[in-house]
Amino acid sequence: MISELNHYLGSIRDNMRLDSSSEKEMVDELETHVEDRFQEMREAGLSDDEAAEECIGLLGSARLVARQVYEAHSQGTWRQALLASMPHLFFALLFTLKWWWGMSWLPIMLGFICGIVFYGWFRGKPAWLFPWLGYSLLPVVVAGLFLLFLPKGWAWATILLYIPLVLWLLCYIVIKGIKRDWLYSALMLLPVPSIAGWFLAVEEGSGFSGFSIEHLYDFAPWIGLSFLVLAVAVATFIRLRQRWLKVMVLGTSGLITLGMVIFASSRLGLFAFIGLVLLMISFLLVPALLERRLKHGGQQAVA
Amino acid sequence: MVRRRDLIKGSIDSLLLSLIGQQPMYGYQIIKEIEGRSQGYFQFKEGTLYPALHRLEGAGLVVGRWQVLSGGRRRRYYYITEKGHSILIEKTAQWQDFFAAMNMIIRPANA
Description:
The complex is a heterodimer.
Chain A lengths: L2 H14 L3 H24 L4 H12 L2 H12 L4 H19 L8 H17 L7 H7 L2 H10 L6 H27 L1 H8 L1 H13 L9 H27 L3 H22 L5 H33 L1
Helix pairs in contact in A: 1-2, 1-4, 2-3, 5-7, 5-12, 6-7, 7-10, 8-9, 9-10, 9-14, 10-14, 11-12, 11-13, 11-14, 12-13, 13-14
Chain B lengths: L3 H19 L2 E2 H11 L11 H10 L3 E7 L5 E7 L1 H25 L5
Antiparallel strand pairs in B: 1-3, 2-3
């Protein structure tokens, strides 16, 4: 097939953001259509270039076709929506039912989360996997927090080694998600700003030593409610077709949960809210910019 | 004023179900059938046919199956499902009622 048509099909493939098997099926189907139409044009007496141009004109804008293909595939079932919102629901229950009071839930929940992540990761990375993937990084965060309890000197030395390792792991997972769709990486990072906000609210300005179970107890209903908001947002995200609506849902849920952090905390004010909102926006925008950069780099490499 | 493109957009599911309900078809064949049978009235961007077919497939109204032809070429044929057939009957009845009502107003003598 001539290069113009290849470029056209490549442009559709790059913008439709499907999993690899659906993407291949869709491109194969469009390719057979293009071949049929191209052949017909050639038989009608058009040159290769004229036939290719006519084919592209009849098929319509690559972006429009890719967007419509995305919308045809982007709506998950109610079952998938429930599955995607489950990790947030677990955490909502954890705080509202005070399960966090004992520590026995932690290994059970982490084992369950890791099991689900392995299952989804090796089954084509479906959309419902990404919220679970975010929570699977929890042991990494908890391990980092425990490092703060090491003797003075050791703590900082270990953290200096630990932070680059964590950032590498985070980048690796985010980039893997971005290769499918940057929105999934944003979905994975969704709870991070509100968790950071609750951490700031609970530690009450006295450093890590000020973090106590009693403080957490005061905030537990609000924390539970914020995870419930995230669960509803994720379920809505999975059920929606249009990308712009999905972005709106992620942004709105982030604003609501951060608003709850500020409302519940007597200490955090406008500046903390602005800082957390900027963190949230960066978690939405960085995956989008990274995806753009990765695709641009890929196209240059092909050229 | 309602544009022809909007009319087609509103009736694309019925058109596709109706054609696939008559015999299994592949995308290019569907385009040719629609153009031919409507004498060029129904014309739309061909690339937008496939998202519509995949949407119907996602809703369980049609099912696509690859077939290998002589010469090794592959085509994806769409078959109507039981659910699709029920929806087609329902939509056909709706269209017939709509046309009958329109005729009673536009051409009262023929009604």
